[in-house]
Amino acid sequence: MPKMKTKSYLKKRASMTATGKVRVARNSHKKLLRKKSARANNQGTKAQYLNDNMVPQAKILAPYGLK
After folding, report:
1. In this predicted structure, what is the pLDDT of residue 35?
2. Which residue from 1, 5, 2 is spatially nearest to 64, judged by alpha carbons?
3. Rounded to whole angstroms, how far apart are CA atoms 18 and 13?
4. Quick one: three-class SS letters along the chain?
5. pLDDT for the residue 37
6. N or C: which end of the chain has fewer CB within 10 A?
7. Which of 46, 8, 6 is nearest to 27 (CA)?
8. What is the pLDDT along the chain (67 residues), one digit of tens a residue?
9. CA triplet 42, 47, 53: central angle to 5 degrees?
10. Residue 36 contacts by C-beta under 8 Å, 6 or more apart in sequence?
11. CA 46/CA 2 separation, integer angstroms
12. Tens digit of pLDDT for each residue in 53-65?
């Protein structure tokens, strides 16, 4: 039986926690950080998780799991 293909964009941008949540990076935290407020920069370092509605779809896109 052939292997299923994993979507590469999801592998690069998401990771799975031990409890089964999918952790993703927050947006707007890569460029032009000098122009953003200190509050925006601090919030950008915190982890963000996918909604419970999106987790089954992420598991379909990454059938062998995420790092």
Report:
1. 94
2. 5
3. 17
4. CCCCCCCHHHHHHEEECCCCCEEECCCCCCCCHHHCCHHHHHHHCCCEECCCCCHHHHHHHCCCCCC
5. 93
6. N
7. 46
8. 788 888 888 888 899 999 889 999 888 888 899 999 999 898 888 889 999 999 999 888 888 888 8
9. 135
10. 28, 44
11. 38
12. 999 998 888 888 8
Token digits of residue 15: 């990771």
Both tokens of 13, joined, read 């941008």
Tell me which residue has tokens 């999801």: 10
By residue count, the chain amounts to 67
Give the Cβ contact number of residue 62 at 10 Å. Answer: 19
Rg (CA), the chain: 15
Q: φ and ψ at 48, to 5 degrees?
A: -125, 140
